[in-house]
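User:
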Amino acid sequence: MDVSHFRDLDRLRQTGNFSQAAALGNLSQPAFSRRIKSLEGWVGAVLVDRSHQPVELTEAGVQMLEAGLHALSRIEHERSQILEAQSLPDKYVITFGAQHSIGWRFYPAWLQALEEAYGPILSRLRADDLPNCLRDLKRGDVDFVVAYQQTGTPPTGSFDSVLIGSDQLILVCKPGADGCPIFSFDAPSIEMPFLRFGDAAPIGQLLQPLLAEKNLTSQLRTVYENSMAGALRIRARAGDGVAWLPKSLVAPDLENGLLVLTGDPDWKIDLEIRLFRGLQRSNRATRSIWSFLQVRQDVPLFSTE
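Assistant: Predicted structure:
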């Protein structure tokens, strides 16, 4: 039996209406009704009087709701105590979520810098598309999310954030034998093969204002798209087209001559790299790291400059 069903029953008590209670729980009405039926089946008694509107709890429903909410409160208290006991730096494993493009190179370098400045921590990384990372943060499945945000734009979602680094989206392609870009924008009438971020990658949306402002859309012909910056990097190195990629990711390729800048030097986008947190998994270890990084915001641990 899912103990969260007692929260459904409480919402139904508050609203007296299945549709409204379902909306409060971000559920469809049929799904909500099935959950109430499941709870009644587990108890073995009718918990809701559906014979009139607004619906009311039966005597059994009132009794079970009181017991269920008390049990939930006790369970959550014990869970909080366990997490607090495990949140000592030498016991608690900090879980970071990060966009694929950040997880490739920025995250390992930043984590090393963090540990050198803060001290050793136990940690793990979940690399995923940003919407999934933020979903996990909201659910409390990860402690922090590392994500790009365009400089000067409002924070992502409703989460608190601290600045931990800076980066840029820069336009690159493969060089020719002479070291010059094999795709040049010197001739405006020539379409450039474009390696673009897929729709699942919010970082690609940051390009749209630049493309519109510089009237570049007509010059770009999409030949490949992927939500992972690493996949676009591989195709760019193979000479398949041009791509805007994080400078932190392609810095080694620029140094080794595997990629070169192309287009106008002004065709870049300044990015902040921020650490977002949710309160669902707040504990001694996460609060300590957060406080440390808040103090360090004016001097981020990592920059591409």
